[in-house]
Amino acid sequence: MAKSPVLPRAFYVHPPDRVAQRLLGKVLVRRLEGVRLAGRIVEVEAYFGFDDPASHAFVGKTLRNEVLFGPPGFAYVYFIYGMHFCLNFSCEPAGWPGGVLLRALEPLEGLRTMARLRGLASTANPRLLTSGPGRLCQALGIEREMHNGIDVTSSRSGLHVEDDGFAPGEIEALPRVGIRKAADRALRFAIAGNRFVSG
DNA sequence: GGAGCGATGTCCT
DNA sequence: GGACATCGCTCCG
Description:
Elements: H1 9-12, H2 16-23, E1 27-32, E2 35-47, H3 66-69, E3 75-80, E4 84-90, E5 99-109, H4 111-118, H5 127-130, H6 133-139, H7 144-147, E6 159-162, E7 171-174, E8 188-191
Antiparallel strand pairs: 1-2, 1-6, 2-5, 2-8, 3-4, 4-5, 7-8
The structure holds a DNA duplex.
């Protein structure tokens, strides 16, 4: 089996809605203590900058969101609701804010480790592993202190994205989840019919 | 299976 | 002090 190429920086140097749609079908890979955890990206959301009130970047650059204003292809990990982490990738050239939130994966490799990290006794219901932004971070052992600001275009950073040639087929555009502002914009993208989409 | 709701830390005003 | 890009539990049908 040919080794899948890692998505390079150039992949992320585009507006977040474009990057979001092109991330669908790619494989998120986390190397954790020698174990390879992997899942296919099936649901994402795009967040712009100053013209998007729902974006963390809308208020301008702060200590928390500065990764979104930096160069593309870096992880923006934040803590929400007192107990969950969410993973984004920065987009657009340095100086332009924008990011893509990863909302759901179809688990491919390392399911038993994912279940353990999620506090589940088994992999009987794989939807409970990585369907949802907080769940996928927990399943892959992604935390802010370790991962915020790391380069996801390097396979040495322990978190990167690969292209295994999978073609996602039909993509649907939906309203974003869990936001109050700009909730009418269809900036959530999913592989149509995939059972791991969080909805 | 779906609506309702509580838990809980961090950031910005 | 309030809002928050969530999750899992309860209760009800």
